[in-house]
Amino acid sequence: MVRAKPSPSPGEMELLSLLWRGGSMSIAEVHESMGQPVAYTTVQTRLNRLAEKGLAEKIKVGRMPTKYSATVEPGAIGASQLDSLVERVAQESVVPLVAHLLDGAKLSADDLKDLKKLVREAEGRFKGRKEPA
Description:
Layout lengths: L9 H13 L2 E2 H7 L6 H13 L3 E4 L7 E4 L3 H16 L4 H11 L4 H18 L7
Antiparallel strand pairs: 1-3, 2-3
Helix pairs in contact: 1-3, 2-3
C-alpha cells in the first residue's frame, strides 16, 4: 500500500508557497519574505515540521545557514488537499461539490468548454466498466 504524504497545515502551506517561488531559502530568508508578522521561531518550527513530513528538505553546506527546499510540486499538494476536501465535505461524492462550485462560479465560455472536455475524457476512461451494484 502506497502511503500518501501528510498534508501541510495552512501555516506550513504558506511557507511551501514561499519555497516554491524562492527555491532554497534559509529560515531568515523565509521569515523576511513573509508578508505578515510571524515570530522567527514559528517560521523555524514550521520549516522543521515540513522537513519531518517529507514535504521539504534541510540542506546544510559547511558553515552556511541551513537552507530549506520543497520536495513536492504544488500540484501534488493541491490534489491531496482536494481529495481530503471531497472525503470530508462531500462524503466522497464529487457531484455536490462540483454543483456548488458551478452554481456560485463566474464561468466563461472557455471554462465551460474545458469542463465539458474533462467530462468527455472521464466518460472515455469509464466506458465499458460495470457500475458497482
